[in-house]
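Per your request, structure below.
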């Protein structure tokens, strides 16, 4: 089992619980639901357990929300749509080819064959073709699954010895055989033997309105898929190219350690001495990648029943220069003001949440730390672009600053990366540091996998439809 706090945006932890065979999930959830509220009355959070096999979902507010599961559902829907195209293709081709078998059916009916016999005979032929296709597809899956994993950045594995996998595939094969063979079989079996032997009724079966409808449906699916691809690609490009206020090619990110964080000022001086480096900042927030979340924020006039979450950025005096922070009111932290170490800079969203029309000079308290607001910034994405601007607060806190941001004057070079690594290794020789460029984070977004999936599906579906 996996236990998780259910407050959206909370810095929730996960607890793994092994239940005995006599305990039900429902019973456990009833007992632990108010566990957090009993320990801390100011927190409006609850706990619940869910099966580990459902970890592809995200649970919030007692509801199950799609996360990675949306890709699983997307793959299933696309696969079913492609299977329908193949079935309809087979139906059309079979009905067209069955014109040559009308006389055969007529003779069988004359000598006493029942309609059910003809239907079962044709379904048997279709089932044999489906079985051969099924076995062939199993081999193709074995060969192509590794290629698909690399293309879609996934880790799909099939255990073909698993009885449940075999049962699922057998069910798909049975559905395909019935969906593809039943209609042509009914067409053949419903014909009149006298008219068939006279050659009067054969052409009526090959040009029916139903067949034309199937053809239209076959081409409708690829059209829908290409529209979806264009929409997803547009959104994907929007996320990649969105202007965050700084040059993505000139911001370098290194994940530091406690040792390097403890020598932050020395490291800053060493890095700034390197030609090509403009600014250096230690922080817990990479722009548009998230920050620490806290609901322990209070201010004058706050409703005691309110339980609001703020994204808290712990950083230093150089963060504004490194990420080109837009200060709309007041100022950013300045080393010449000793009192700034106890002050805060908030964004315009936080000011609206707090209810301050003129927040500069007002005081707030964060996790027991009281300070004055000296500035307001705007248009800064603390979390990813999939969400809105969030109420954010910047402070000169030294704990938890696990990221080192380096702004350079020109494009990234391997030589500069090596020099940065050499500086860090002076303070922690046994650690291997990886220098990343911010633009590298945008090479694969949450929409990239979905876009690749739908693109491959479109290519396959249009090939099948053109048959």
């Amino acid at each position: 089992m996996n236990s998780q706090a259910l407050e959206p945006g909370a810095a929730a932890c996960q607890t793994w619980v092994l239940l005995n065979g006599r305990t039900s999930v429902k019973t456990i959830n009833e007992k632990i639901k108010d566990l957090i509220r009993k320990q801390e009355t100011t927190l409006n959070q609850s706990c619940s357990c869910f099966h580990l096999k459902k970890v592809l979902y995200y649970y919030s507010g007692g509801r199950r929300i799609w996360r990675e599961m949306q890709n699983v559902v997307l793959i299933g829907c696309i696969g079913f749509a492609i299977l329908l195209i193949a079935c309809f293709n087979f139906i059309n081709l079979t009905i067209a080819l069955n014109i040559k078998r009308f006389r055969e059916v007529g003779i069988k009916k004359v000598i006493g064959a029942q309609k059910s016999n003809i239907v079962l005979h044709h379904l048997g032929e279709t089932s044999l073709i489906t079985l051969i296709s099924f076995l062939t597809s199993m081999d193709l899956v074995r060969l192509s699954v590794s290629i698909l994993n690399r293309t879609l950045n996934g880790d799909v594995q099939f255990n073909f010895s698993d009885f449940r996998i075999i049962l699922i595939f057998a069910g798909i094969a049975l559905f395909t055989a019935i969906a593809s063979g039943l209609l042509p079989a009914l067409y053949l079996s419903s014909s009149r033997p006298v008219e068939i032997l006279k050659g009067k009724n054969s052409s009526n079966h090959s040009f029916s309105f139903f067949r034309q409808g199937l053809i239209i449906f076959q081409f409708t699916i690829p059209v829908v898929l290409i529209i979806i691809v264009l929409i997803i690609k547009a959104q994907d490009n929007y996320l990649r190219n969105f202007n965050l206020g700084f040059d993505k090619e000139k911001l370098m990110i290194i994940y530091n350690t406690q040792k390097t964080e403890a020598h932050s000022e020395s490291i800053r001086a060493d890095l700034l001495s390197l030609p090509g480096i403009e600014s250096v900042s230690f922080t817990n927030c990479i722009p548009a990648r998230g920050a620490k979340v806290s609901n322990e924020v209070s201010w004058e006039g706050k409703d005691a029943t309110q339980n609001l979450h703020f994204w808290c950025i712990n950083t230093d005096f150089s963060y504004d220069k490194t990420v080109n922070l837009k200060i709309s009111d007041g100022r950013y932290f300045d080393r010449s003001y000793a009192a700034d170490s106890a002050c805060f800079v908030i964004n315009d969203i936080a000011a609206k949440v707090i209810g301050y029309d003129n927040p500069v000079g007002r005081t707030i308290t964060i996790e027991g730390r009281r300070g004055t607001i000296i500035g307001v910034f705007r248009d800064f994405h603390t979390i990813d672009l999939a969400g809105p601007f969030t109420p954010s607060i910047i402070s000169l806190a030294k704990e938890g600053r696990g990221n080192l941001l380096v702004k350079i004057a020109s494009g990234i070079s391997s030589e500069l990366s090596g020099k940065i690594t050499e500086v860090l290794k002076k303070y922690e020789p046994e650690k291997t540091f990886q220098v990343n460029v911010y633009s590298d984070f945008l090479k694969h977004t949450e929409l990239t996998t979905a876009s690749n999936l739908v693109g491959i599906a479109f290519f396959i579906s249009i090939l099948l439809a053109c048959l």
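The chain has 15 helices and 17 strands.

Regards,
D.
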